Amino acid sequence: MNRFSQKKKSSRLLRRVLTAAAVCGCAVFLLLRATSAVRQTADDSQLESLRNAIVRSAVHCYAMEGAYPESLDYIREYYGIDWDETRYIVDYEITGANLMPDVTVFPIHRKEAS
Fold it and tell me: What's the rounded Cα separation, in Å, for the pair 21 and 89?
């Protein structure tokens, strides 16, 4: 028996194991990237949904009462719009009773624990 044949078999096995580990590592990396992209898309969608809900409530108030709401508190109290203040900052700027307010929603970026 050739004394070197055993070493060739073990080196082939090692190469196969390393290749499989590399492929699995790449798959995990790609999965994490895809998950991150989906999370970002969902966050953007929630941001836009909140802004649209506030604008719709303001327009509804104008249609029913003849003036846009004076504050976000009014929208919260009478139109039931609420949001997580630890995740979003809402800027509601009034330019006049008969002019559509400027509504901007900002995400609050928090450091995630590692």
Answer: 44
How many angstroms separate the Cα of 77 from the Cα of each of 10, 26, 33, 80? Answer: 72, 50, 40, 6
Quote the CA–CA distance of 31 and 25 in Å, as a whole number. Answer: 10
Picking from 50, 43, 62, 46, the residue whose alpha carbon sits closest to that of residue 90 is 50
Beta carbons within 8 Å of 86's beta carbon, 6+ residues apart: 108, 110
Indicate the pTM of the whole model. 0.68
Percentage of the chain modeled with pLDDT above 70 = 88
DSSP state at residue 91:
E
